[in-house]
UniProtKB/TrEMBL annotation, chain A:
Organism: Sporolactobacillus terrae
Function, in words: Catalyzes the isomerization between 2-isopropylmalate and 3-isopropylmalate, via the formation of 2-isopropylmaleate.
Keyword Amino-acid biosynthesis: yes
Location of the Aconitase A/isopropylmalate dehydratase small subunit swivel domain: 1-122
Protein name: 3-isopropylmalate dehydratase small subunit
Automatic annotation (TrEMBL), chain B:
Biological role stated in the UniProt entry: Catalyzes the isomerization between 2-isopropylmalate and 3-isopropylmalate, via the formation of 2-isopropylmaleate.
Cofactor dependency: [4Fe-4S] cluster
Positions bound to [4Fe-4S] cluster: C347, C407, C410
Gene responsible for this protein: leuC
Keywords of this entry: 4Fe-4S, Amino-acid biosynthesis, Branched-chain amino acid biosynthesis, Iron, Iron-sulfur, Leucine biosynthesis, Lyase, Metal-binding
Reactions catalysed: (2R,3S)-3-isopropylmalate = (2S)-2-isopropylmalate; citrate = D-threo-isocitrate
The species this protein was found in: Sporolactobacillus terrae
Protein name: 3-isopropylmalate dehydratase large subunit
Length: 197, 469
């Protein structure tokens, strides 16, 4: 995983609550065995009509949001299926941070494991970003080290678990890190050797 | 000792490492694997030259993609590749696989309990959100993403923050014709799809205690639809009785010893929950969802709601979008909604008890003209059991299709698809836009309600239906 660095990116407002992972990446794209290339399938049924033509009114299809790297949405983003294809698709499309008042647990974890910063923000501040994003193309600076979001006339601190922050900032290989606890795992296994199948 | 919930008891038992400012390192007893969320995890192991730490604590099957036709031939080349990839991975990493022609094949959350792999007190994970199903046995079971699948394969552990505990207490008893599916749909309709976020839910109360194991699985299965990390029910005699004699359950004296330990896991009186909700089971009516998330539900005798009736602006907009997608008119009686397709299956409702309920409704009746109705047993074992009881004959005579086991139309990754614009009464768990096929419209119901809809061609109150027919 690459270390997460401070960046400035364009905001894309997605004015919806309860965006589920079936919408983020529909099931017909889950049959692949790799991690790459899912960006073209992101929000497929919202972006394309039944003939594969772009739907002009969907926010991602509007030219001014084409290069966005920060997605802002409403409550309970990423609910439903555990498919990690959802963050893979968001990342492959170019999103590096997602802002919402709340996220579904598994999705939040999946973002973390892929170096995408999921930021929980007060609903009124999210509302402000969405309204502003709808009328004006603007960029936001995301500084994980300082836990700060900033833009012209916008400054906001955000909370993140210190451990999760460290993993993202360093781009840690979590498995390699866990394997340094090998002795403890082995001891646990010896003490709890129950019948397995 | 301070009274503890079952959640705390299991958590404490599985703690390998604990340190302030960090999540806990938790031991995982059992890892279930399927073809869709695992290929990239095995690939990660290969790239880093890592073995699977405990193949003996890992069990795999193919379910999401598999065809449910009799010859089970996968026509779709990409699905085929995914199935073959799992076969190769299981062979290379020495993992037991209930393959497509195996007598143990089935939906991962149906075969775990059926084989006795699922047991009280275990920590269990699977790259699938409905892993919460296994909590019915008093296990901490939750869904994980593919990176975590790789982590568990490599280390048999996960870093997890201790979740909060929520109690949902269901007082009284469910009325006749009202089942576990109605109960969980009613809970989600009442409290919404994010009420459980950050929590493990323990279901308690008289109504829960009186449910069979299969019904408990239906309830725990849909905990994720309430946003919960997991759902569980403290083990009792019903749990013990279900597990006796199962393939992977302990045998003889070891079973009795295990049973004692299991029963001791039940939450102590006076244990602390971060939040408690209480509902009265006797008030619950048969449920049907009208919208595009599981909380958009109503009782069979209700009307499709008018979005204007929601006082919250966000809810109003969401209801408007949902009703437009579902092509419904506000004010239409729920029972008058016509149906094109009926799907009885999925990890929520494809067990033998579910099939028996549906068969009872189907017996002596016939599927309505123009309706396609599928029965997809959750596992090969369930299918055999149903056939031994003659349920397949009842269904076939009534005009239902009797299929081979798999996830099937629950997410329509195989050929079982609801065509665009068609309306399906489904016993599955998600009514998201396009879930059962692009442009498809899903109404979530219980197996009995689905069978009744198949026969009437529209929804029907199962309580009256049974009285008339
Ligand atoms: S039946 Fe449906 S919900 Fe259950 S595991 Fe299969 S796809 Fe997922």
């Amino acid at each position: 995983m690459h270390p997460f660095k401070t960046f400035e990116g364009r905001v894309c407002p997605l004015d919806r609550t309860n965006v589920d992972t079936d919408q983020i990446i529909p099931k017909q794209f889950l049959k692949r065995v790799g991690r790459k290339g899912f960006g073209s399938c992101l929000f497929y049924n919202w972006r394309f009509d039944e003939h594969g033509n772009k739907k002009a009114d969907f926010v991602l299809n509007k030219p001014e949001y084409a290069q966005s790297s920060i997605l802002v949405a409403r409550d309970n983003f990423g609910c439903g299926s555990s498919r990690e294809h959802a963050p893979w698709a968001l990342q492959d499309y170019g999103f590096r941070a997602i802002i919402a008042p709340s996220f579904a647990d598994i999705f939040y974890n999946n973002c973390q494991k892929n170096g995408i910063l999921a930021i929980r923000l007060d609903p009124t501040r999210v509302d402000e970003l969405i309204r502003r994003g709808a009328t004006e193309v603007f960029a936001l600076t995301v500084d994980l080290e300082q836990q700060k979001l900033s833009a012209a006339n916008f400054d906001e601190h955000f909370e993140i678990d210190p451990y999760q922050k460290e993993v993202l900032l360093k781009g840690l290989d979590e498995i390699a890190m866990t394997l340094t606890y090998e002795d403890e795992i082995a001891t646990y296994e010896k003490q709890h050797e129950t019948v397995v199948h | 000792m301070k009274p503890r919930t079952i959640i705390e008891k299991i958590w404490d038992q599985h703690l390998i490492h604990e340190e302030p400012g960090k999540p806990d390192l938790l031991y995982i007893d059992l890892h279930l694997v399927h073809e869709v969320t695992s290929p990239q995890a095995f690939e990660g192991l290969r790239i880093n030259h890592r073995p699977v730490r405990r193949p003996d604590r890992t069990f795999a099957t193919v379910d999401h993609n598999v065809p449910t036709s009799e010859n089970r031939e996968t026509k779709d080349a990409i699905s085929k590749l995914q199935i073959e990839t799992l076969q190769k991975n299981c062979q290379a990493f020495d993992i037991e696989l209930a393959d497509i022609y195996s007598p143990h094949q089935g939906i991962v959350h149906v075969i775990g309990p059926e084989l006795g792999l699922t047991q009280p007190g275990k920590t269990m994970v699977c790259g699938d959100s409905h892993t919460s199903t296994h909590g019915a046995f008093g296990a901490i079971a939750f869904g994980i993403g593919t990176s975590e699948v790789e982590h568990v394969l490599a280390t048999q552990t996960l870093w997890q923050k201790r979740p909060k505990a929520m109690q949902i207490k269901v007082n009284g008893n469910l009325g006749i014709g009202v089942g576990a599916k109605d109960l969980i749909l009613a809970i989600i309709a009442k409290y919404g799809i994010s009420i459980g976020t950050g929590h493990i839910v323990e279901y308690t109360g008289e109504a829960i205690h009186n449910l069979s194991m299969e019904e408990r699985m239906t309830v725990c299965n849909m905990s994720i639809e309430a946003g919960a990390k997991a759902g569980l029910i403290s083990p009792d005699q019903t749990t013990v009785d279900y597990l006796r004699g199962r393939r992977f359950a302990p045998k003889g004296a070891a079973f009795d010893h295990a049973a004692q330990k299991w029963l001791a896991l039940a939450s102590d009186d006076g244990a602390h929950y971060d939040r408690t909700l209480e509902i009265d089971a006797s008030e619950i009516q048969p449920q049907v969802t009208w919208g595009t998330n599981p909380s958009m539900g109503a009782s069979i005798n209700d009307l499709v709601p008018d979005p204007e009736s929601f006082d919250d602006e966000e809810k109003r907009q969401a209801a408007q979008k949902a009703i437009a997608y579902m092509d419904l008119k506000p004010g239409t009686p729920i029972h008058a909604i016509p149906i094109d397709v009926v799907f009885i299956g999925s990890c929520t409702n494809s067990r033998i008890g579910d099939l028996r309920q549906a068969a009872e409704v189907a017996q002596g009746n016939h599927v309505h003209e123009g309706v396609r109705a599928l029965i997809v047993p959750g596992s090969y074992q369930t299918k055999k059991q149903a056939e031994a009881e003659g349920l397949d004959q009842i269904f076939k005579e009534a005009g239902f299709e009797w299929r081979e086991p798999g996830c099937s139309m629950c997410l329509a990754m195989n050929d079982d698809i609801v065509p665009a614009g068609k309306r399906c009464a489904s016993t599955s768990n998600r009514n998201f836009e396009g879930r059962q096929g692009t442009g498809s419209r899903t109404h979530l119901v219980s197996p009995a309600m689905a069978a009744a809809a198949a026969i009437q061609g529209h929804f029907a109150d199962i309580r009256e239906f049974t009285a008339i027919h």
